[in-house]
């Protein structure tokens, strides 16, 4: 359904500042003119006045039929009003174009101002507004020819109509060019925003990975330190040889923790393009036995069984993931269920996958002494690690009163 005439008229003559910013490439969303806009508008008024005088001068000097004094006064007054109205050509583009058109019906000196207003209308408003004013120029020219004794309709039509079409086409070209530039600018801004989002996402993923690695490599060592120190605290009557052995364990565990921390900090401090040192050796399936022995030396009661066919054929990522699962599980047992019976089972073969199971009895009573802090991020990190590897991991208490960590890894 087409718009009704009153509604269409309101749409055409409403202030340009109320339009969407995409239709006003030279104004901001508030419609406030800049100093440069005011200077250009002032120049447009002056240019319209100068050209208006040039349009009027042949009628005053060269015409065989001279204008009366009243006609000259009307012509000059209308031309001056048309030039002054150009000051508001940005905000009220259609209204100014129509005013100049009306004034040009009785004034040849208002014609240049009308052409400038028409060009500005084509720049600042949609094409339908410009076409409407161009069509109205035809009856306006015919009325001027009937009013003025110095010209005829055909001459006026042939002289002014090409100018009106030319300035309209020029204004449309400028409008299209500005909209193209705005589109390119918007795309560039969107691309920059997408790039920043991509960088932030990559940075967050890298931070998460580094945090997970720091947790994996340090939490177990520090937990062992706490367990060894706790054993010395609750058993001050240990033989000197046992105290010396425990102190040696504390020293070696602390040294290993510092070395692993140094490796992680080296990754954080590494500059882009800088040649990094040799990567730290990553744990494998064979290192799980060493891990269990370290926990046993700290006092853990672990029943360990490992039946893996061709463990040397296991990919490095698979061995690292299995090691981290056992490491985190033993760390949590040392924090929350120290001394309980623990079972560690690692079974698998190429093509059949790798199954890792850690089971311990949940303590019936809270153990004495301070509880080691934990944020619960370890198991969450394990789930993320296993999910990225395409495996599954479940954890939690079962019906028999055991806490179970069970993982299935692809191999």
TrEMBL record:
Q: Which CDD domains match?
A: HATPase_UhpB-NarQ-NarX-like
Q: Which InterPro entries match?
A: HATPase_C_sf (IPR036890), Sensor_HK_TwoCompSys (IPR050482), Sig_transdc_His_kin_sub3_dim/P (IPR011712)
Tell me any Pfam family this protein matches. Answer: HisKA_3
Q: What is its EC number?
A: 2.7.13.3
Regions that span the bilayer: 64-88, 94-118, 130-148, 154-174
Q: Which domain of life is it from?
A: Bacteria
The answer to whether UniProt assigns keyword Thylakoid to this entry is no
Uppermost EC category: transferase
> Where does it sit, as one GO cellular component term?
membrane
Q: Which reaction does it catalyse?
A: ATP + protein L-histidine = ADP + protein N-phospho-L-histidine
> Annotated Gene Ontology MF terms?
ATP binding; phosphorelay sensor kinase activity; protein dimerization activity
Identify this protein by name: histidine kinase
Source organism of the structure: Arthrobacter cheniae
